[in-house]
Design brief:
243 residues; two-stranded antiparallel ribbon; mainly alpha; 2 strands; 9 helices; 52% helix; elongated; 2% strand
Length: 243
């Protein structure tokens, strides 16, 4: 894998405690890490016997005590998540274009990002996952530009700077802050449109998904694009010097 080539530095507990001593993920007691708690109701939308529900119908969640599987955030709007790659390849030159990416790799992009939350990747033990992200970035770069990181002389910079940026991403998702959890609960609730009184209710979840996806990916995509443009400038200068 690409990670084995670049030799990712550790992101173990010692580094975490020295850099961010007070940060801990928010996991609700009694809720498996691949689940979230949504409004617990019967098929008539009642949360308790005799309740006059705002909407007298619902997909029942009471049997599971309101615990449902977490839905993917990055795969919620796959086209938008894919479109964010456009900024990575802007001004790289040489025919670089995010639209050259195959449909298979587009799907892999969203699925790999979503694994961070769905598998509850631990920031303190994330080397393997970060390695997979770097390998995926390498493949995407090759598909969109014709050259991978090695051909561009970026292996060392990627192993340090881009790996650091992806760890930042892992930490943001790993934290499961209130805004993230409200969004996950909203899109995971089979009765999200009816749960108007729930604390996680969102009137425009699609807009929140786009904002959240863009903000979580901001740093790694910026670093990735900067590295590619810097490499392109270096190669262009080298050609001029040779001529």
């Amino acid at each position: 894998s690409f990670g084995s080539v670049v030799g990712l530095p550790s992101c173990g507990p010692a580094k975490l405690s020295s850099a961010m001593p007070s940060m801990h993920p928010r996991y609700e007691e009694g809720v498996p890490k691949d689940r979230c708690r949504v409004r617990c109701c019967n098929e008539e939308g009642q949360e308790y016997p005799g309740q006059r529900a705002p909407f007298p119908f619902a997909t029942p969640t009471a049997k599971a005590k309101g615990l449902v599987k977490r839905k993917p955030v990055f795969g919620c709007d796959k086209d938008f998540t894919y479109s964010l790659l456009e900024s990575v390849f802007q001004d790289v030159g040489g025919g670089a274009d995010y639209e050259r990416l195959s449909e298979r790799t587009q799907r892999l992009w969203s699925r790999t990002l979503d694994r961070c939350d769905l598998e509850a990747i631990d920031f303190r033990n994330c080397d393997e996952y970060v390695s997979e992200l770097l390998s995926l970035c390498d493949n995407i770069t090759r598909e969109c530009t014709g050259w991978g990181f090695a051909e561009r002389g970026l292996v060392e910079d990627v192993s340090i700077e881009l790996a650091k940026a992806w760890r930042h991403f892992v930490r943001l998702v790993w934290m499961r802050d209130l805004e993230w959890e409200d969004l996950v609960r909203c899109i995971s609730d089979p009765n999200s449109d009816l749960s108007v009184d729930a604390e996680y209710y969102l009137s425009e979840p699609a807009a929140v998904v786009k904002h959240t996806v863009a903000s979580k990916l901001l740093v790694p995509l910026q670093v990735w694009g900067l590295l590619l443009r810097a490499a392109a400038e270096t190669q262009a200068s080298a050609k001029k010097s040779y001529i």
